[in-house]
Amino acid sequence: MAKINWQLALSDYLANEMLSYASIAQKYGVSLQAVKKRASKDGWVNLRKETIQKVDQKLSENISNKLVDVNLRHAKLGRLMQERGMKKMESGNFKIKSYYQALKIAMMGIEIERKAVGADK
Predict the structure, then answer these.
(1) pLDDT winner (highest mean) among 27-31, 63-67, 106-110
(2) Which percentage of the chain shows pLDDT scores above 90?
(3) DSSP state of 94
């Protein structure tokens, strides 16, 4: 029987959740039984589960961080739109159409900010 680097075989197994024991056996030129025995001894199934959980957790954290960044940008934009709209309305030197447009901008800013901070849920 061929001597193989079991750590490398395990790394391959953990890196690709579609990879089977049979694939590992074929790739490294050993019997399926040898891979099953080693996998059982070293707890490959549990190691794969733990690896998948860690990857899922990291992915969730990355997505959450990106959502926070997007929400912060949207809240900032919403506040800016409110400020600009309010300044335009407070200046009072425009026609009704412009007042309506300023009000619309302020209201859109409020809506954007509320969504960004989760106040509309």
Answers:
(1) 27-31
(2) 38
(3) S
Angle at 10 between CA 51 and CA 39, to 5 degrees: 95
pTM beyond 0.70: the answer is: no
| Token digits of residue 115 | 């969504």
**Residue in the block written with tokens 């074929």:** 26
**Pick from 64, 72, 61, 21: which is nearest to 44 by CA?**
21
Dig out the tokens for 91 from the structure.
Answer: 């200046």
Q: Which residue has the tokens 């026609």?
A: 95
The two three-digit tokens of residue 100, written as one number: 């309506």
Closest listed residue to residue 101, CA positions, set 89, 90, 92: 89
CA–CA separation, 52 and 49 (whole Å): 5
* Alpha helices by DSSP H, the chain: 6-15, 21-28, 32-42, 44-91, 96-116
Is residue 5 helix, strand or coil? Answer: coil
Assess contact for 71 and 39: CB atoms under 8 A. Answer: no
Better-predicted residue by pLDDT, 115 or 42: 42
